[in-house]
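Researcher: Here's the sequence for the chain we discussed earlier.
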Amino acid sequence: MSNETSQSKPDHLTVTAISAKNGVSTIERWQLASPFKTSSEAGVSGVSFAQLGQAGNASYAVIPPHFEGGLHNAPALQYVAFLAGEAIITTPETGQSVKIKGGRDGLILVADTADVSSKGHDTRYPSGKETVALQIPVAGGKVPEHVVLDEEVGMNGIGD
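Model: Thanks. This is the structure I predict for it:
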């Protein structure tokens, strides 16, 4: 939902995606094909929501300050929702790097599994505080339908 104000209603969810092309991990900005809908459920009537699809066995991770995740592939196609702290993700073969801060814009999709990326990506957690993340595998491992909005994601965001 990046670049949306609290007063506007987004049409589609956008996420930073750690993906792969030709066996090399990349960082892109994706717009998911499923549009936002408006809830009519009691307690959240009128609220915009986006369906992320069926989830696998989700986990809650507490990552220590200044943790170095190292070079790795995604263990599964999964959403990672950073709730607090920050992560710096780098794709060494392309030289791309992006900073993800916990909170509203902290949702990423990680799809550079070993079957599509030879080396994966590097993740660092530079904050002096713990980073908290929800790891939500996509059931069936199918990449959601999407449009690539930007293939040149840089350290300060899209199209750096």
